[in-house]
Write a structure and sequence with these properties.
The protein has 401 residues and is an alpha+beta fold. Helix content is 31%, strand content 26%. Strands 1, 2, 7, 8, 9, 10 and 20 form a seven-stranded mixed β-sheet that branches. A seven-stranded antiparallel β-sheet has the order 17-16-13-14-15-12-18. Strand 9 and strand 10 form a beta hairpin. Helix 8 packs across helix 11. It is elongated, with a radius of gyration of 25 Å. The two termini are 19 Å apart. Bound molecules: flavin-adenine dinucleotide. The site of flavin-adenine dinucleotide has 38 residues, from helix 1, helix 2, strand 8 and helix 12. Flavin-adenine dinucleotide binds next to helix 1, helix 2, strand 8 and helix 12.
Length: 401
């Protein structure tokens, strides 16, 4: 069988690409259902985009690469698509948009879009073999156990990253990239909780508070959550994408306050108050108990010298912690690194050195912050490749090729 385009991966980017690739397109996925990560995203309501998308929300060896695709398919384009399908949504926080109902509505919308565009969807289908011969990609697929030979002019790699292997994530896009000599940037888990030696934060498990987490590369003011394994919550997930094994992070537990001035004023006004009582006005009780032991906090406010108060402020606002590691691909929301953007056109997502080969979505070395940015990259890069393929079809038809 010959089709113009085979898209490997019926996830966010692959389905978006199929919706724009102009028909004669086959989308292949080894899963039973398309868009599984969309379905479970945002606690089942999918944080499908963000009102404020700028290139600075993305990590990549080439921070400029994402600009073209994001500019040509913006959050507003996706919002109008969602609106056209009558899917109700709301802003939760920090510009993050979620479905009022279910993330399944987004999956159904994309399936409808690709079907209307004339694309076929083969689920429970794996790639057994792939060759490039005579200007075409020759694939041997195993569909529901039976082998199928398919050749195509365009092959789109949209199988995502390595995150959550239990959900069917594989390194297929990277393997095919290697097969065609496309360079790869080392991959590592992103948007992932930090782990600490067993027992370090057990007493605090479940405690959450607003905090500022930082290192030399980035800082985030969002919620921090202590867990049995270590640290989680949005602030941690965000910083994890900027963290490397063995590095320390800085935790500011009381970020919005000039704590030293406040404590000095309170020493004057409430000198008999226990220091722990004063701190408990700013932090959850269980955390105060923990910190009291951690930093040997004792005495009344009146007993504290300026130097002692400064040391306490430093402990609470510049707490240095070195994670033992991260929870890894098992729970990471994304994979950092991937197919080197140097090998791709930022306009079309096509490989510069290999005709008809495209890479989109998380497989590419572009990774967004938490907050709907990763889906927006999947939509935008899928749209860019789809449009380029459709334009190629139109040009081919016009010249009778
Ligand atoms: C728990 C969780 C929650 C998330 N929540 C959000 C969120 O709310 N907002 C946000 O912006 N981002 C979120 N993300 C990130 C987002 O899901 C991804 O960035 C996005 O799905 C990437 O799109 P993609 O199309 O590149 O890859 P995917 O959506 O992962 O799609 C890849 C597809 O390829 C298929 N595939 C993989 N290997 C093979 C193979 N060997 N053969 C055939 N098919 C294969 C998979 O089955 C899958 O259908 C979340 C991720 C996780 C894990």
């Amino acid at each position: 069988m010959f089709v113009n385009t085979v898209i490997l991966g019926a996830g966010a980017a692959g389905m978006m690409c199929a919706a724009h690739a102009g028909g004669d397109c086959l989308v292949v996925d080894h899963a039973k259902s398309p868009g599984e990560k969309i379905r479970i995203s945002g606690g089942g309501r999918s944080n499908f985009t963000n009102l404020d998308v700028i290139p600075e929300n993305y990590l990549s060896q080439n921070p400029h690469f994402c600009k073209s695709a994001l500019a040509r398919y913006s959050q507003w384009d996706f919002i109008s698509l969602v609106d056209r399908h009558g899917i109700a949504w709301h802003e939760k926080t920090l510009g993050q948009l979620f479905c009022d109902g279910s993330a399944k509505q987004i999956v159904a919308m994309l399936v409808e879009e690709l079907t209307q565009a004339g694309a076929q969807l083969w689920l429970k289908t794996s790639v057994e073999n792939l060759r490039y011969e005579g200007g075409h990609y020759q694939l041997t697929l195993l569909r529901d156990g039976s082998p199928q030979r398919v050749s195509c002019a365009n092959l789109v790699l949209a199988t995502g990253g390595k995150s959550i292997p239990k959900m069917g994530a594989t390194g297929l896009a990277y393997d095919i990239a290697r097969q065609f000599d496309l360079p790869l940037i080392d991959t590592r888990p992103g948007l992932v909780p930090f782990t600490f030696p067993e027992g370090r934060f057990t007493a605090l498990a479940g405690t959450a508070l607003p905090a500022r987490l930082s290192n030399s590369r980035a800082n985030f003011d969002e919620a921090l959550l202590f867990t049995h394994r270590g640290l989680s919550g949005p602030a941690v997930l965000q910083l994890s994408s900027y963290w490397h094994e063995g590095e320390a992070i800085t935790v500011n537990l009381i970020p919005q306050t000039d704590l030293f001035t406040l404590l000095r004023d309170q020493r004057q006004a409430q000198g008999r108050r226990a220091l722990t009582t004063e701190i408990a006005r700013h932090l959850p009780g269980r955390l105060v108990d923990f910190l009291t032991a951690e930093f040997a906090i004792t005495g009344r406010l009146a007993d504290q010298s300026d130097a002692a108060l400064q040391a306490l402020c430093h402990a609470l606002q510049s707490w240095q912690l070195t994670p033992g590691g991260s929870e890894g691909y098992r729970t990471a929301e994304v994979t950092l690194g991937g197919i080197d953007t140097d090998a791709l056109s930022s306009k079309t997502m096509q490989a510069k050195s290999q005709p008809g080969l495209f890479a989109i979505g998380e497989a590419v070395d572009v990774t967004g912050w938490l907050g709907g940015y990763n889906f927006q990259w999947a939509w935008a890069s899928g749209h860019a490749a789809g449009q380029a393929i459709a334009a190629g079809n139109a040009a081919g038809n016009a010249t009778g090729a």
